[in-house]
Predict the structure of Phosphoacetylglucosamine mutase.
Amino acid sequence: MTLFNVAIGMALFEEVSKKSALHPKPAGLLLNYGTSGFRTVAEQLDHVMFRMGLLAVLRSKKTKATIGVMVTASHNPEEDNGIKLVDPMGEMVTPTWEEYAMQVANAEQEALLTVLGDIMKREAIDINQGAAVFIGRDTRPSSESLSQAVLDGILSLAGHAHDYGVLTTPQLHFMVRCENTQSRYGNPTTEGYYQKLSQAFVQLVKHAPNRTDDQKHLLVDGANGVGALKLREMEPFLQKELQISLFNKGTGGKLNFQCGADYVKVQQGPPLGVEMLVGQRCCSFDGDADRIVYYYSDSEGRFHLLDGDKIATLISTFLKKLVTQAGLDLQIGVVQTAYANGSSTRYLENNMKVTVRCVETGVKHLHHAAQEFDIGVYFEANGHGTVLFSESAVEKIQQLAMDSSTSDEKKSAAQILENTVNVTNQAVGDAISDMLLVEAVLAVQGLSLQQWDAMYTDLPNRQRKVKVADKSVITTTDAERRALSPAGLQDAVDALVKQYRLSRAFVRPSGTEDTIRVYAEADTQENTDSLAHEVCMAVYRLAGGVGEEPQPLC
Ligand code: 16G
Ligand code: MG
C-alpha cells in the first residue's frame, strides 16, 4: 500500500468511526444472518443497517460491480424489519460474505474498524476501487429511516449510492442485474422493469387471441404491501390484457395481517379482504412480493390452493412441450425442497419425466442448483421461485426464433420460449413476474384453473412448530429430510412414519425464527395431523422441548 492509500484509508475510517457513533450497537446484541438476511424487530436494526451499508461498499469494491441492499422483512409482521445484500447478477450474496455480515453486525462498537480492516485484508480489497450500491425498501413504517441508515453507511465509506425508495425485493434484484450487464438484461428503472415484463406478456397472450374478459380477470391480494403498489403502477403497461381486481392494497389494512401468500399457504384458506366468487382465479403476494400462491373456491365452497409446487409443475410442463416442439436439445430440471408435496414430485418424475432435485430450504440453495440445467425451474412450496435459462439455452432459442429456414411450428415454439425468457425475472423469484408467467401459460395452453389443479392431487399435509431450549441441537442431512442429531430422533420419526400410508415427515430448525419446524404428509388429513402431532411430541421429548407440550389439532 502506498502512503497515499494509507492516508485515504485512515481518513475514511475516521469518518466511519464518527458516523458509526450515530448508529450505536446495543452492547451484547447478537444477530444472525439467517436464511435470507437479518430479520428482527425494527428497533434493534439501526446499527445493522448502517453497517450493511459499509459492507455493501466493500462487496462492491471486491466484485468491481454494483451491489444491492434491500430493507424488508418479507412476510413477517409489520413491527419487524430486515436487510439482505444482493450480489452482482441479482442473486443472494455469497455465503462467505454472510459470515462477514455477521461479524460486522455483531462487532461491539470499539471493534468495528478492526473487523472491517480484517475483511479488507482477507479479501485483498483496494480502498481506491470505486463502489456503487443500489438501495430498495418495502412499505413498512420503519423502512424509510432504516434505509437512511444504510445510506449513511455507504456514504461514510465514500461509496456511490442510488436510493430507489420503495421497491419490491425482486425489482431491486432486477435493477442490480440490469446495471451489471450494462442494460443487456433490461433498463435499471421501474419503467424498464414494467416494460420488459409486460411487452413479453403481451406478446405471449397474442398466441391466445380469443380470451374472454372473464379469462383476463384476476383477483390479487397484495398483502397490504409493496406488491400492491407496484402492480398498480404496472397496470397501464399491460394494455388491458390482464384485468386485475386488487385487494389488500395497503390503504387500510395492516401488512401481512391475515392476508398474503404465507398466510394463505400455512392456513390453507383464503385471506381476509378478498371477495372471491366461485371458481374465480385469485392469487396472493407476500409483503415484499417475492412469493405468490394461486387459489380458488369450488361450487361446494371448498378451498383449492395452487402453491409453488403446482406453479413449478405448470411451468415445467409448458416448457417441456415447447422445447420438444421446437426440436431443441435442452435439459429441463425442477428443483424443490423437502416441503414439496410428494404428489408433485411423483408427477414430475413419473408423468413428466423431468429431472427433480431436492435441496435445502432457502432461495440461494434452489437458485444454485437450478443453474446446473439448461432450463432450471425452481420453486419452494411456499411460492418462491423462478426459471433460470442458461446463456447457451437463450442463444439457441433466439437463433431458432429468427431462423427463416425453420418450420412454422418450430419457429412459433421458439418465439413463445423467447418471450417466456423475457417475462421471467431470472435474478430471483418474483410474484409479479411469476403471475404474468402463470397467466400467460394458462392463456396460451387454453387451460382453466381447475384443469391446472387437476394435474395431480396434493397429499394432505401439515406444518407445525415446536419450541425447544436450543434449536441447534437438531442437525439435518439429505436436504433436511433426515435428522442427524439428537440421537434417536430420526429413528423415532421413521417408526412413526411407518404407521401411516403415503406418509413422510421431517424436522428442521427454522432459519428465520427461534423454533423447530415439523412437516408431515399422509393419505388423509386426519392421519396427517395425527402423524404431525406425534412427530412434534418426539421432538419435544428428544430435543429439549420447552413450555407447554404440543397439543393435537382438534
Ligand atoms: C426465507 C427464505 C425462504 C424460505 C424461508 C424458510 C429467501 C429469499 N427466503 O423466507 O426461501 O422458505 O426463509 O424459513 O431465501 P424457515 O427457515 O424459518 O422455515
Ligand atoms: Mg418475501
Remarks:
- The domain at 308-453 is CATH 3.40.120.10 (Alpha-D-Glucose-1,6-Bisphosphate; Chain A, domain 3).
